[in-house]
Amino acid sequence: MSEALSSEQLDAMSRMSGLEYLRTAFALEDRPRFIGDLLHMEVEEIESGRVTFTVPTVQEFSNPLGVLHGGIAATLLDSVMGCSVHTLLEAGVGYGTLELKVNYIRTVPIDGRRLRGTGTVIHAGRQVATAEGRVVDDQDRLVAHGTTTCLIHR
């Protein structure tokens, strides 16, 4: 992975819709590193208004009690909810998270299984968008859920 995209790549991507941008960015072999790389995040789905990513439950992600740190689920939720909003944006429009609410339902062992996070847009307005997210384990049991409010940068 590279440290930066070429000026040609950046120019081409600046003309893409949010959905096209995300699909392209995740498919690039020489894309810059991002937080998902630290979490071994993988893309399962990128559709209009909905995205699904997965992360493993590994030792490096444990808290002092020996189970998955809540920040991993929170980061997964922030990623899928924010990216679900991004899929609905026009070219050249960005967003930022204004508020993130996470509810933890159960502890997660750090045994290498994958958690799946799905974010879905609830409302996409001109200035503000909201989304909801769910994180489930490999048995489809709810681990955490949340909501976000995003400010649209036009």
Automatic annotation (TrEMBL):
Keyword Ribosomal protein: no
Keywords attached to this entry: Hydrolase
Molecular function per GO: 1,4-dihydroxy-2-naphthoyl-CoA thioesterase activity
UniProt lineage: Bacteria, Bacillati, Actinomycetota, Actinomycetes, Propionibacteriales
Taxonomic source organism: Aeromicrobium marinum DSM 15272
Entries under PANTHER family matching the protein: 1,4-DIHYDROXY-2-NAPHTHOYL-COA THIOESTERASE 1, BLR5584 PROTEIN
Name by which UniProt lists this protein: Thioesterase domain-containing protein
Domain Thioesterase: 66-144
GO cellular component: a single term: cytosol
